[in-house]
Design brief:
alpha/beta; five-stranded mixed β-sheet; 8 helices; 5 strands; 13% strand
Length: 210
C-alpha cells in the first residue's frame, strides 16, 4: 500500500514538473521531493533563486525558516526536507514587478496551480498543514492580520479532507513582524503547536535521535 502511494506521488511530482499552465510564470517548476508524510508545508511561490537551486525555500528566507524549526522543534533542514512534503500556492517563479520586488501571482495562476495542491492533499491526507505567509494562509482561512492567526491551530476542511492548519509568517528579511511584538511571542507559540501535533510527532519526531 505504501509502495503504491509513493509510486502515485512520484508520478504526481513528475507531472507537476512538466506543468506549463501559466504562460507568464517563469520555468522551471520548483517542488519538493516525493515524501509520504502526514505533514505538508505550503509556501507562497518560489523566488528567483529557487529555480536555479532546484528546491523550495533554498535562499535567505529558507535559511530563516529552517532556523525557526531547528531552534523550536529540534529538526534541521535535512531532516525537514526528508520527512515533510513541501508544496506551495504557486510552483513557478512569478517574475519581478515593474517597480521591483517579486510579482504576486494573479488569481488565475493561483487557481491553475490549486489543482496540484488538492491532488497532494487527496493523496497524502495530511493531519497537519503548515501555511507560510499570508497568500498561503488565505488558501485555507481568512487572514487580514497575522496577529489574528499566528499562534493558533485551526481545524480546516479543504478538497474534501479535514486537517489542522498552523499558520506561520513568511520568513522574508523584509518583514519585521517576527522580530517585534506580538510576533516574538506568537511565532514560538505557533512552532510549539507544530512540535506537539500528533502528525508532526509521527512524521518527524520519531526520526530524531534519542
Amino acid at each position: 500500500m505504501k509502495r503504491d502511494r509513493l509510486a502515485r506521488l512520484d508520478r504526481h511530482v513528475a507531472a507537476l514538473r512538466r506543468c506549463r499552465r501559466c504562460p507568464a510564470m517563469q520555468k522551471p517548476v520548483v517542488t519538493g521531493a516525493s515524501v509520504l508524510s502526514r505533514v505538508m508545508l505550503v509556501g507562497q511561490a518560489p523566488g528567483d533563486k529557487e529555480p536555479v537551486l532546484g528546491r523550495p525555500f533554498a535562499w535567505t528566507a529558507g535559511r530563516k525558516l529552517f532556523r525557526w524549526f531547528h531552534e523550536h522543534t529540534g529538526v534541521d533542514e535535512v531532516t525537514f526536507r526528508s520527512h515533510i512534503y513541501m508544496a506551495a500556492v504557486c510552483r513557478c517563479f512569478p517574475g519581478k514587478r515593474a517597480g521591483g520586488g517579486d510579482r504576486v501571482p494573479d488569481p488565475d495562476e493561483i487557481a491553475n496551480c490549486s489543482g496540484w495542491m488538492k491532488a497532494e492533499i487527496d493523496l497524502l491526507r495530511p493531519g497537519l498543514v503548515i501555511a507560510v505567509g499570508k497568500l498561503a494562509i488565505r488558501q485555507f482561512i481568512p487572514c487580514e492580520k497575522l496577529d489574528a492567526v499566528i499562534g493558533s491551530v485551526f481545524p480546516v476542511g479543504y478538497a474534501g479532507h479535514r486537517f489542522d492548519l498552523v499558520p506561520l509568517p513568511h520568513p522574508s528579511g523584509a518583514s519585521p513582524w517576527p522580530h517585534q511584538e506580538p510576533g516574538r511571542v506568537l511565532l514560538p507559540r505557533a512552532l510549539a503547536h507544530i512540535a506537539a501535533h500528533p502528525a508532526w510527532r509521527d512524521s518527524v519526531s520519531a526520526s530524531l535521535p534519542g
